[in-house]
């Protein structure tokens, strides 16, 4: 298709896999994150656009939308994927770490949606796909701050879904379990994780699935996790 998609957090992990898959499906992909070199390399592969931006910065975010429209003249899809996390007992968290995690996961999602929803409402069309987390639906030790941020993101998207549905706008939330990425400063590719973790491309396929739903169908929520993972 000739659809234009913004993918945040596209420099690596789930966002990168999603950008590559959507480009392969024929979309024009705008890759967004803070790492210019990685984005340029990706944009070369996807023949798309790379825009360096911090999703916590409202000016950066507005620039992403403006640049996309200047370059392609349209915008159809937002994949809200940029996210961070770290895991410790509650009392060991610095309050600055709370701020960092909430800034990216909650405010970043808020700012991206805020910048795009007016356009989607005006064109009475558009699809927001957010990468939330299965921990938004459960709890686990050391996950207090990350879980709180992902639950906040989830609650925001649930309300937004109801606000924009009358305008024909779709909001799909994907809840992954463990995925083998760079998340939490890890290095992906350890063969031992093959049985316990999904691959970024598994989540990219889930994004493709929700985007390919016919016009009269919306996938509100999609939970996806490794078969070995209890939830
Ligand atoms: O992580 P990683 P994932 N502004 O670290 C970007 C959720 N999730 O792919 O800015 C803009 O490989 C960062 O780019 P850069 C998770 O909560 C994961 O696993 O260049 N971009 C990079 O491209 C998150 O929402 C698991 O550093 C910012 C990307 O985000 C999503 O999946 C399980 C940014 C992170 O890539 C993708 O994470 C689950 C900012 N301020 C949910 N800060 C899992 N991996 O197990 C970061 O349930 N980025």
Automatic annotation (TrEMBL):
Keyword set, alphabetical order: NADP, Oxidoreductase
Record bears the keyword NADP: yes
Oxidoreductase among keywords: yes
Source taxon at top rank: Bacteria
Coiled-coil segments on the chain, per record: none
Family of the protein in this entry: Belongs to the short-chain dehydrogenases/reductases (SDR) family.
UniProt-recorded name of the protein: Oxidoreductase
